[in-house]
Q: What sequence folds into this?
């Protein structure tokens, strides 16, 4: 059972990373144009000239 | 600021075109350095990069970003760049573009409420997954100290999460209770807080059952419903605002003979305003210069253009057809008759405020029932065992198991699916209960001009003339952009007729066009101008060199899908009526053409509203379809209302549903979709009730463990959502 003492914090930490990442995507406006973003990855332009 | 005072610092080549353009650009600039363009035709990755590359190449443009979902480009630019320049640049590379009024759009630019909900939803999802993981271990047999530790960890996750994620419910329940009402959120809040409190108490006493997972899942499912509901309305709202933003409120003011483009809000009484052909009057006023014809159909429903000359009074909203007019403003902004009529709408008792939504009806039945049941369970068990802890545990279990989460999802899941389906067909559901009200409709009232008809005239008697006359009329008509002229040109070219050779074609604004045929004068225009007697219907007259006069008559062409829509509604057993402000002859002809039995002509705006109210008083549920200012009162008074995208802003605001395309046929479809949506909502309520009927006796008997609660809650929520998806 001692294994729980670090497994539970680890699972909470991993979940927390996911949550923090989601909040970051939300704050940085990544859900305002889902259709456009899906198309943009098809173009090389943004790879060759990334935004500063 | 005058042109002379302005230092020449413009870096924009298009602005160097003329001093007037420069002054215009500057006036623009001081306000918005942020421009928005609507791009209705973009659809692919290539479009995005082409538009962005072209815009970024323009001097003065700092950044340009295309949003494909909204089909819109946002541009941050230096102050001397105007939207008109960018529109012409984009049209040059083949993309249709329209300027959007940034002020009107800003409200929906950042969907703050939506993000806030999504954040709370994410936190609730994270917490409920983790707590569920711990709960599963408890259900699979964790005991004693381990179980207590799991419960304490769950409590540590659940408490802050519920305070953060449950805030929308707490706020809404509190405001309902403050006003002495009960809504769905009251039992929700009660269930959540009671579950958390008893679980905390159980945990302290190292008890066996804790409901932290149930409380969190409840919050998660309910937030999902809330978010779906919000998204549906946010999409409709942003599309509706885009329609409004397309009409950029600008006017041309004349000061000392110079033209200045200004915002309509800056105009004041006594200003001289220039209205070009095709433009809409921005203010009420009197004509001081110029001759033209006015289209008043949006205000009165009349299709015949009115002759305009100095001295005639004009109202905001009328459209100038042929020649430029200079107006002296007598009323501006809120004082214009357009605004006063639009305000009447707000005063009129509206159909939507009288309607109680299905969800509210269910809540009124459900909330007291659940509370009484739970209280009875508490009292019963207390008398039976004399143990507060057991009694409270069972009361909490009853509240949780009665599961308002299926009820909370029952309506939003269905309306989201139905609105999405109608949106793909070109209908925008603006009001949250519009679908429910649409399902009850038994009488449909149509406006004529601009709704059933497209507002563009169509030549009716082409066959009566010999080819020479038609080719003569066609040649004259090509010299003008008047709607009747364009109708002659399109009818003649459809018949394969070539225009005659004429010289010295000139348009006389307000009267018609004239030219020389082999040195002799020919004219096409108003009856009095060519020396003929006017006819009752819309007509234009051709005067030949020998003095004979030919009359071309017109009818308003039908809007696409009008016939199908009326036909489908009649077959569906609906009562269809036509109420118009136009003349008896025109209305009767259209009614006969479409097979509508009941029609009323020459109706004033108040008559329309009164007729709709009279029908409602008889217990009819009226759907009003209209586009003009004369319809707005009727649109607001009707049980539910639809307006086409071409309608005046005031009419679109007054209606529940906006038709995005020019086709009317989705209306009949919408009624069917609405009815099946309501069927699904009722089914969902029934499913939720069945779950309760099975689970509540278990809970009252004290047999309901947290595991059973979690199973019942999740399965009912999922069934309800899947049932809603069947509508797609």
A:
């Amino acid at each position: 059972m001692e294994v729980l003492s670090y497994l539970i914090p680890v699972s909470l930490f991993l979940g927390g990373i996911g949550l923090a990442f989601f909040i970051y995507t939300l704050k940085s406006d990544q859900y305002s144009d889902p259709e456009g973003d899906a198309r943009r990855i098809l173009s090389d332009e943004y790879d060759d000239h990334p935004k500063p | 600021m005058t042109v002379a005072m302005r230092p020449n610092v413009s870096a924009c080549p298009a602005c160097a075109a003329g001093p007037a353009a420069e002054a215009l650009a500057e006036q623009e600039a001081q306000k918005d350095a942020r421009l928005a363009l609507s791009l209705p035709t973009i659809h692919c990755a290539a479009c995005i990069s082409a538009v962005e590359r072209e815009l970024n190449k323009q001097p003065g443009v700092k950044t340009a970003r295309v949003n494909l979902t909204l089909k819109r480009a946002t541009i941050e630019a230096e102050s001397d760049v105007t939207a008109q320049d960018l529109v012409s640049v984009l049209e040059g590379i083949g993309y249709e573009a329209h300027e959007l009024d940034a002020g009107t759009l800003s409200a929906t630019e950042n969907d703050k409420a939506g993000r806030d909900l999504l954040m709370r939803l994410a936190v609730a999802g994270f917490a409920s997954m983790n707590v569920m993981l711990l709960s599963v271990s408890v259900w699979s047999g964790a005991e004693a100290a381990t179980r207590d530790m799991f419960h304490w960890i769950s409590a540590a996750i659940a408490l802050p999460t519920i305070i953060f994620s449950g805030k929308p419910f707490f706020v809404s329940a509190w405001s309902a209770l403050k006003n002495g009402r009960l809504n769905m959120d009251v039992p929700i809040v009660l269930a959540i807080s009671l579950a958390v409190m008893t679980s905390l108490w159980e945990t302290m006493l190292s008890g066996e059952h804790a409901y932290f997972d149930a409380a969190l899942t409840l919050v998660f499912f309910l937030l999902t419903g809330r978010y779906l509901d919000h998204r549906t309305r946010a999409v409709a709202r942003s599309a509706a605002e885009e329609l409004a933003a397309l009409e950029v409120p600008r006017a041309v003011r004349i000061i000392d003979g110079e033209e200045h483009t200004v915002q309509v809000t800056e105009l004041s009484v006594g200003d001289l305003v220039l209205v070009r052909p095709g433009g809409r009057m921005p203010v009420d006023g009197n004509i001081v210069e110029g001759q033209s014809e006015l289209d008043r159909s949006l205000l009165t429903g009349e299709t015949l253009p009115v002759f305009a000359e100095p001295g005639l009074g004009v109202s905001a909203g009328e459209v100038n057809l042929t020649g430029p007019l200079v107006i002296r403003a007598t009323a501006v902004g809120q004082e214009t008759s357009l605004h006063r009529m639009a305000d009447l709408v707000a005063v009129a008792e509206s159909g939507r405020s009288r309607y109680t939504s299905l969800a509210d009806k269910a809540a009124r039945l459900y909330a007291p029932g659940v509370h009484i049941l739970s209280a009875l369970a508490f009292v019963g068990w207390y008398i039976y065992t004399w143990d507060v802890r057991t009694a409270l545990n069972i009361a909490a279990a009853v509240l949780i198991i009665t599961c308002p989460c299926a009820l909370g999802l029952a309506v939003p899941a269905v309306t989201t699916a139905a609105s999405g389906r109608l949106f793909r067909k070109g209908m925008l559901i603006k009001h949250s209960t519009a679908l429910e009200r649409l399902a009850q409709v038994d009488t449909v009232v149509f406006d004529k001009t601009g709704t059933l008809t497209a507002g563009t005239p169509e030549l009716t008697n082409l066959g009566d003339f010999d080819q020479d006359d038609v080719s003569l009329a066609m040649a004259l008509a090509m010299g003008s952009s008047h709607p009747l002229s364009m109708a002659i040109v399109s009818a003649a070219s459809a018949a394969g007729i070539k225009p005659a050779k004429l010289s010295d074609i000139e348009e006389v604004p307000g009267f018609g066009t004239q030219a020389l045929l082999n040195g002799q004068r020919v004219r096409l225009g108003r009856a009095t101008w060519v020396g003929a007697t006017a006819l009752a219907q819309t007509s234009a007259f051709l005067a030949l060199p020998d003095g004979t006069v030919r009359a071309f008559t017109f009818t308003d062409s039908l809007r696409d899908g009008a016939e199908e829509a009326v036909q489908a509604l009649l077959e569906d057993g609906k009562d269809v009526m036509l109420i118009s402000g136009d003349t008896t002859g025109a209305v009767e002809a259209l009614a006969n053409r479409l097979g509508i039995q009941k029609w009323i002509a020459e109706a004033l705006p108040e008559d329309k509203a009164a007729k709709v109210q009279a029908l409602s008083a008889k217990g009819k549920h009226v759907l009003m379809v209209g586009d003009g200012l004369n319809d707005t009162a009727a649109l607001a008074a009707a049980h539910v209302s639809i307006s086409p995208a071409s309608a005046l802003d005031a009419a679109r605001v007054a209606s529940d549903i906006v038709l995005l395309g020019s086709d009317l046929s989705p209306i009949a479809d919408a009624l069917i979709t609405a009815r099946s949506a309501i069927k699904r909502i009722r089914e969902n309520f029934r499913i939720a009730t069945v779950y309760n009927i099975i689970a509540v006796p278990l809970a009252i008997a004290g047999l309901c463990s947290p595991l059973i609660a979690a199973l019942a809650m999740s399965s009912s929520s999922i069934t309800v959502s899947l049932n809603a998806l069947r509508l797609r």
User: Anything to note?
Assistant: Chain A touches chain B at residues 1, 4, 8, 11-12, 15-16, 18-19, 22-23, 26, 31-36, 39-40, 42-43, 45 (CB under 8 Å). The CA atoms of residues 25 and 31 of chain A lie 8 Å apart. DSSP finds three helices and no strands in chain A.
